[in-house]
Amino acid sequence: MKIGFIGTGVMGTGMIKNLLKAGYDVTVYNRTKEHAEDALDAGATWLGTPAEVTKNSEVLITIVGFPKDVEQVYFGDDGILGVAHAGQTLIDMTTSSPSLAKKIAKAGEARDIGVLDAPVSGGDVGAANGTLTIMVGGSESTFEKSKPVLSAMGSTITRFGGAGQGQNAKMANQIMVAGTMTGMIESLEYAKHAGIDLSQMIRTINGGAAANWSMTNYGPRILQGDFQPGFAAKHFLKDLRIALDTADEMNINLPATKVARDLYEKMTDELHLGDLGTQGLLKVYEPDNI
Predict the structure, then answer these.
(1) Predicted confidence (pLDDT) per residue in 224-244, tens digit
(2) Reduced to 3 states, what is the DSSP secondary structure of residue 215?
């Protein structure tokens, strides 16, 4: 099977490598070719536009930065929907807005093209190991058809309903992550100022009721001074904004998520640290360490 893949960032590159390991023929595109070198070295083939990749693919996967990037790559000049044809499957794995997922699905359905929104969770570790959690929206038939491809990238794959429901599930996931990230940072900040050994504290937390993925995976990185992005703060801020905008549409209030958004806005917009990993939120609490 020929798979096209658009977006060779930290997440996309790990996912591409696992598709290659599973035996798929993978063609890739990224706005900056230099950022695709790791995927090309692993065996992927380069083509120069999203349209070219689409023409040469049975299944087309996208994971780009922001909803505006999704809009451009699907609906723009040399975009996917300008050349996609009946029988193809399009899978957007970007964390994007539920309304945009529905727009893409509607455009695809009008031309007998299968469309899934399938955002992921698990960060760079999950992408590299093929253990991502994948949250899917779209028709059951397209989902079943796509399971082998999705299984090459993830270990927990769940369909939540029709178009947009994968994105809604991801928003619920990110709301939970917001709580664990702020909790992790404040827990470590408190323990540090109380004179507690932070390595001991991380082990203790992860052995009890407060255990969580953020502390397990990002706590040790913080102690090593490693703020490189497994998942960039600017992208997490984008997710929180989408979640809160969608919550407004549903007329629900999420005050704790608003606090997390405000903290990440300070990190990204005021301190200009949005390219750091989400664990870089520590620098909002310790600006002298910037």
Answers:
(1) 999 999 889 999 999 999 999
(2) helix
Q: How many residues does the chain have?
A: 290
Question: Taking a C-beta distance cutoff of 8 angstroms, is the pair 135, 160 a contact?
Answer: yes
Q: Which two tokens stand for residue 72?
A: 């451009």
The rounded distance, in Å, linking the Cα atoms of 151 and 148 is 5
Among 61, 56, 66, 54, smallest CA distance to 15 is for 61
Burial environment of residue 238 by CB neighbours within 10 A (0 to 12, 13 to 18, 19 or more): buried
Distances (CA, A) of 271 to 37, 182, 267: 31, 17, 5
Predicted model pTM: 0.93
Tell me the backbone φ, ψ of residue 14, rounded to 5 degrees. Answer: -60, -40
- Tell me the catalytic residues: 170
**Closest to 150 measured CA to CA, from 173, 111, 172, 119:** 119
Round to whole Å and give the CA distance between 82 and 111.
Answer: 11
- Element spanning 57, H or E: none
Instruction: Give the number of other CB atoms < 10 A from CB of residue 183.
Output: 16
Q: For the segment 112-130, what is each residue's pLDDT rounded down to a tens digit?
A: 999 999 999 998 899 999 9
What gap in Å lies between CA 78 and CA 145, rounded to an integer?
A: 27
Cβ atoms of 196 and 175 within 8 Å: the answer is no
What is the Cα–Cα distance from 263 to 170, expressed in whole angstroms? 20
H helix or E strand, kind and range, residue 26 = strand 25-29
Question: b/e string for 70-109 if b means 16 or more Cβ within 10 A?
Answer: bbbbbeeeebbbeebeeebbbbbbbbbbbebbbbbbebbe
